[in-house]
Structure formats: C-alpha cells, structure tokens
C-alpha cells in the first residue's frame, strides 16, 4: 500500500513538529537547570499541595489555574503523560526530574 505525496508531506511535517517540540522542551529544562535559585524538589512540593508524594493530573490542573493559565483536560493530559514515565497514573519526584 502506498501513501499519497500529500499524506507523506503531512507525516514529515508532523515528525518535524515533534522534533521542534522536543528541542523546545530540552531548552526550557536547561534554563531551569542553569538557574541557581530553581530547586526541582521545591517545585514538585509546590504542585503536590497535599503532600501525597506523587502528582496526578488534577494537581497539574490546579497549579495551572492558580497561576492563571487556562488549559483543557487534553492539554493537562499531554503534559502529565510526558512526566508519567512508568505509565501508572502518578508522577513521582523521580519521574519529575
């Protein structure tokens, strides 16, 4: 089965966007790491308001809303999924770093 040229271009564009997003994420992480005042544990603890030792999607939603960032469930899920490396529905400090 072959793909049309149009479909192939769209797939290439999709792959390019994924690559650009990965680079932007890595750049943002480096900015945090290079900031001597930023502590990942403090950040994690701030989002984990109830001191459960892990984060769930609603923790991300609350944090975003408290910081006046409106996001829908899908956007929160995409961010959460990026951190939930074990795919167990929880983000630990180890996952977060």
Rg (C-alpha, Å): 17 Å
Query: Which overall shape is indicated by the principal axes computed on the Cα atoms?
Result: elongated
Q: How helical, in percent, are the residues?
A: 55-70%
Structural class by sheet pairing and helices:
mainly alpha
Calculate the terminal CA-CA distance, rounded to whole Å: 42 Å
What is the mean predicted local confidence, pLDDT?
87
In DSSP terms (H or I, runs of 4 or more residues), the helix count works out at 5
SSE run: HHHHH
Low-confidence parts = none
Tell me the β content.
under 5%
Question: Sheet bearing the most strands, described?
Answer: none
Q: Total number of β-strand segments?
A: 0
Write the layout of secondary structure elements.
Elements: H1 5-34, H2 40-47, H3 57-66, H4 73-83, H5 93-96
Helix pairs in contact: 3-4
